Amino acid sequence: MWWLLPSVFLVSGANALLRPDDVGRAPALGWNSWNAYNCEIDADKILTAANEVVNLGLKSLGYEYINIDDCWSVKSGRDPTTKRIIPDPDKFPNGISGVADEIHALGLKLGIYSSAGTTTCAGYPASLGYETIDAQSFAEWGVDYLKYDNCGVPDNLTDTYTYCVPDSTDGSFFPNGTCVNLTDAAPAGYNWATSTTAKRYMRMRNALLSVNRTILYSLCDWGQADVNDWGNETGNSWRMSGDITPKWSRIAEIANENSFLMNYANYYGYPDPDMLEVGNGNLTVAENRAHFALWAAMKSPLIIGTPLDTIDPTHLTILSNKPLLTFHQDPAVGRPAYPYKWGYNADWTFDPAHPAEYWSGPSPALGGTLIVMVNTEETTQTRTAFWKEVPELKELYTAGKKGFKVVDGWSGNDLGCVRDKYSLKLGAHDAGVLVVGDSC
Ligand code: GAL
Q: What's the family (predicted)?
C-alpha cells in the first residue's frame, strides 16, 4: 500500500498518510459548526459561515474548509434500501450535495462528520459497519473533509486495555505515558495500532482511500488508545485530548498536554488540540490571543468555531494574524514550534495550569524564527526572549552575532535591530509574538 511506504524522500513524519494535491500537507484551516452552534445547524448557517469566510478576508488568508459537525442527518436511521445516511431535509433541503455545490462555487471546501461507532455523540446514525457506503456518499456529495468521532462504540468493540489520556486522569498522568492506579493498563510493549479503536479508524481510512475523491481524514478519538502512535498512518490529524471549552483553564490544560507531542507533528500528520474557541465564552482578549498563538505555533488544525456573521473585529484580527498563519502554513518546514523553556516551571514540567511559556520554530516563509512567549500567570509579568537561549539563534549568537532584526507579530511594528534579548510586559494569560529575522 502506497500510504504505508516510509516517506524517506519527503519532508513529513515517518508513515504519514500522504495525499494527492497537497491535501492535508499543512495543517487544515477552516471553520466548523460545533463550537458555534452545537446541534442547532442548517444549510443557512453553514452557507452564512462560508460567505463570511470570503467576505471577511479569511479565505484569502488560507481558511478553506467549512465543516458541518454532528446532527446533520435524519436521526431515526438510514435509508432502509440503500443503507445510506439521509441528510435531514428540514435542515438541508438541497441535501449535503446542494451545500457542497455552493461552497465549491465560493472556492471553498466542505467537511462533514461521522463516528467510528453505531451512533454519533448526539445519537445520529454513524459509520461503523457502513464505512464504504458512507465514504461513497460523502464522495458523491462532494465532501472534502471527514471528522470522525469516537461515540456509539458497541460493547464488543471496546479495547482490552485502557490507555491513560492525560486529561481524564486528573494529574495522575506523567508525560512518559505511565498512569498511576490504572488496573487495566496495557502490558509493556503493547502495540496500540492493533487495538480495536485503531482498527475502527483504519477501516474508515481504507474506505476513504478507496473512493474517487480526496477527503482529508481528521480523527477524533480524544487521545484514546495511544492515537499518537498510529494516528499518523491513519489520518491527517488526530485529536489528542477531550473537548475544549471556552475557558482559559481548559485551553492551558490542553496546550500543556500537546506541548509534549510536538515531535509527532509534521507534514500530513498533526496532533489536534481541538477546534478554536476564539470569540466564544468570556475569554479575555489576551486569552483569545494566547489561544490562537499557541495553536498556530503548535501547527494544530486551525478550525474557527464562532459565528462569523457577528464576530467582534478584535477576534477577527486575531484569527487573521499573518505572521502566525504564515508560520503555520510554511511550505518548506513541516515541524511546529517547540517549547524551548517552560519559564514559570522547570523545563519539561507537566502542569495543566502553566504550560510551557517559551516557544520557537524556524520558518523560511516568515523570513526567520517565530517566538511565542506566554504569561500563564494571573497577574501582569515580564517575559524575556534571550537570543542565547533560542535554539534557532543561539549558534549565531555564540559566534558573535548579538543583534537580530525583530518585528512584533501582533502590531507589525518594526522593532529594529535588537541586541541580546527582548522583553515584553504581558497581562494575565497573554502571549507575545516575535518574528526574528537576519542578524544585524
Ligand atoms: C465530541 C467531539 C466534539 C463534537 C461533538 C459532537 O465527541 O469531540 O468536537 O464533534 O462530539 O457531538
A: Belongs to the glycosyl hydrolase 27 family.
